[in-house]
Amino acid sequence: MAATDLRGRDFITLMEFDREEVETILDTAHDLKRKWIRGEPHRLLEDKTLFMLFYNRSLRTRNSFEAGMTQLGGHAHFLEPDAVYTPALPGEEKAYSTERISDVARVLAEMGHGIAIRIYGKHTGWLYGKGNLLIREFARWSRVPVINMEDDMYHPCQALADVMVMQEKLGHHLQGKKFVMSWAYSGSVEKPLAVPQSAMIGASFFGMDITLAHPKGLDLDPKVLEFVKKNVKRNGGSFRIVHDMDEAFKGADVVYPKAWTAQPTDGKTPMDPEKAKAIFEANRHWITTGDKMKLTNDAIYMHCLPADRGMEVTDEVMDGPNSVIVEQAANRLHAQKGLMALIL
Ligand code: CP
């Protein structure tokens, strides 16, 4: 078996894959994107079914998975937790309104070829790690691959699309390019840590020089930061943390400013909305403007969307020539097709 045979693998975080495997997924994604542009058929998953369970709302993730499965010759089945018996962890069941995850996962696995799940935020009481735990419980019981469509720790499908865009805009080899993951202000504190953590994990495979910028009190998960530090070392990049947005932006090739909440990552203490709000309001100046973009090395501006215009970023930047937000969203389709073609 080749080292990059990924058939049957779960996709919960990129931290469980090595560089060769990540590159295989991305190469497949670029290849399928070219086929799609040229109108060449690529029905690699004929008659296969992906079950998608969305606890949270979605524009990009749902539609890219649905369209992607159609283009690959299969079908993606949309499930709302309230329309089925809401999947629950042992000890959290309620008579006749929930069903234990072990039963849900085993039943769906008999009917299709993959199970994809999105869960974070109010559905897990803003307790860091609970959504990831639930997805891993599905993976424990399902005999078909489980895909993380965003939990409270990771958004690995977004990270694949993000790396694809950087490869398209900056050249396939991203070695030595300066990548800035920055916090940005929002009027809402209901923002998981999944995107910034996954974006840095993704960039760490490609020898990029990563800067993480945030005000004090908005720290990310130390376990993720430790992985990023080790992975950049292994792949020839660097990693630093700063607490000043302007300092971070200086000379950057890529800026990715977005809000994430102030949250304990011990898995025991839920997010306190009032404490988080106080930190957010003290840092309203963390907004990406045209003047801040002038500090960069003509950087591309990235955001996973949806963005809070006028808070995280100005319209001038969002709709400006360096913005690649639509390309990022579009690449969700191609990245996930590459992934599904390999694992399902
Ligand atoms: N970026 C992203 O996951 O978008 P949706 O919430 O619309 O799926």
Overview of the molecule:
It is built from 12 helices and 11 strands. Strands 9-8-7-10-11 form a 5-stranded parallel beta sheet. It has a 4-stranded parallel beta sheet with strand order 2-1-5-6, with helices on both faces. Strands 3-4 form a two-stranded parallel sheet. Helix 6 runs parallel beside helix 7. It folds into 2 domains: 14-153 and 333-343, Aspartate/ornithine carbamoyltransferase (Rossmann fold); 157-329, Aspartate/ornithine carbamoyltransferase (Rossmann fold, 3-Layer(aba) Sandwich). It is 39% helix and 14% strand. With 344 residues, it is of the alpha/beta class. The model has no long low-confidence stretch (mean pLDDT 97). The protein binds phosphoric acid mono(formamide)ester (CP).
Low-confidence stretches: none
Total DSSP helices: 12
* The top level CATH class name of the largest domain: Alpha Beta
The overall strand count is: 11
Q: Tell me the Rg in angstroms.
A: 20 Å
CATH topology of the largest domain: Rossmann fold
Number of discrete domains = 2
Quick one: CATH superfamily of the largest domain?
Aspartate/ornithine carbamoyltransferase
Helix percentage range: 25-40%
Topology order in helix (H) and strand (E) letters: HEHEEEHEHEHEHEHEHEHHEHH
Give the CA-CA distance, first to last residue.
16 Å
Strand content: 5-15%
Kindly name the structural category.
alpha/beta
Instruction: List the ions, cofactors and other small molecules found in this model.
Output: phosphoric acid mono(formamide)ester
- Which descriptor suits the 3D outline? globular
